[in-house]
Amino acid sequence: MSNDLRLTIAEIIKRPLFQHAQVVAGHRGLSRPVRWVHVLETADTGQFLNGGELILSTGLGFGEEQEKRLAYLTELIRRKAVGLCIELGRYIPSIPEDMLELANHHQFPLLVFHQPVRFVDITQDLHEHLIHAQLQALRNLEAYSRSLQQLSLQAAGTPKLLQHFQVAVQTQVFYYAPDGTTQFAPVVPHDVAIEMSDVMRSHFSELDSGEAGVRLLSLSATRQLAYQPVMAMGHVLAYVGIVLFERSPDEYLLLTLDNTVSAMAQILMRKMFVEEQALATENRLFDDLIANRSIPEEQMRSLLGITGSGKASTYHLIILSFEKKKNLAEDSLPPHDLTAIFRSLLTRHRFRPFIRCMGHRFYFLLIEQQPLIDSRRTLEKAFRDVKRIMTQMLGVDAQIWMGVSRAGKRLSDAGRHLAEAEQALAFYHESSSPFFADLGLFRLLFHVPNEPVLKVFISDYLGLLLAHDQAHGSSLVHTLRVYLDANLSKQEAAEKLYIHRQTLYHRLEKIEEILGEDYTATQNRICLEIALRARDWLSKEERHH
């Protein structure tokens, strides 16, 4: 299969109708591909050009007038025409020096016919060739798409797919993974591979994630890369591209690249899912942790495949909880299938991830591959990407919560840190932070047994108020909660409750009557706030169970 879509000016001047044509300027632009042929005599009709046209003219519109001819040639160059053919004769007997200089400066091919020619014959000949080439390219593209499907069914790997791509486009192609892995087809010399890999590593590391589509990267005046990201759920898995020498990518190349990228995404996703199926030990590990079964240090290290007795790496335990949109399409990706994508993403953030999806939850054990300077900032950045992918899959109105444990060192303590992540998740809305370290006083609740201490504590401090609300259908407990959260600001509390300030005064008087006039004193206020949050926590626990 060959790409026959391009018809360059260098190829055109070899055709019979151009046997008396002479290139008089812009020789370095002869490799430009011609998209169409157009007769144009005046500069003011340049607006009808789309770019890529070879222009035919007799000089009727500009003749030998310097201002007109330079304006005409400048307009063609500005409109991205690829060359100009002029029939010398009555209107312009020879090409003036100023036109030659302008054409050479812009490497814009300027051809002359020394004998009269029929423009209609030229346009018919070239248009027939261009249309035939486009139809052939479409047939080639259809055949290439079918061959890609066959490769996918054969479970071909990336090297085989890349070689197939190279045969189709007949130029140098490459594959680059964010971990620095590069592949070239055909194989390039070692020093060239290192140079190209360094250029791509530098360029791709600065790109924004999640942006699809073809991009160009100029390497020199004559060489550039056309590349496209291989993506899954907004996450970049790799890049596939073409090295172009003295040419720009045409439609055939871009469509072939796009088809290759789609096939590559399927192959990489399938490979990732197969790898996920092989990680059964991780599932057993999380099942034990979630069941609160104690695991000795050596057994944990064995389960995770950690050998040696070197210094323990820092790790973090995270729980991500989510609720789907009710009208989520049935054929959308199941949540657990995102495990492979999350693994790729978190590895890129320099964690060694262990992941388990159960119901509407993801459990993450992230081991720092190397000590991080600011692990919290890295975690925040990584889980912004995780949430972006989740939102893309579940919809913008999906609800996503997180709980993050303190950093751990001893793997045998992982169960305790998982419980910290659980508590941080439970108090996510209270602390406005997913980190257990930010819970403040509410961390103490973690160490208080639910029965009977917490219920007795809640009853002692809120029992009378709860009884009043139940007997009278009032909302004094909620009013107290908002008032304390507003730091005793009556104006702010009234606004948050959407009531008049006078109504709030009446409620606060009733609360004072029930709880006592010193309920806002520091000691009592702390106890009330803990009781309010403990009550919310217990109600959530009861709903879950």
UniProtKB/TrEMBL annotation:
Residues 476-534 form the PucR C-terminal helix-turn-helix domain. Residues 11-130 form the Purine catabolism PurC-like domain. InterPro entries: CdaR-like_regulators (IPR051448), PucR_C-HTH_dom (IPR025736), PucR_C-HTH_sf (IPR042070), PucR_dom (IPR012914). This is PucR family transcriptional regulator. It comes from Brevibacillus fortis.
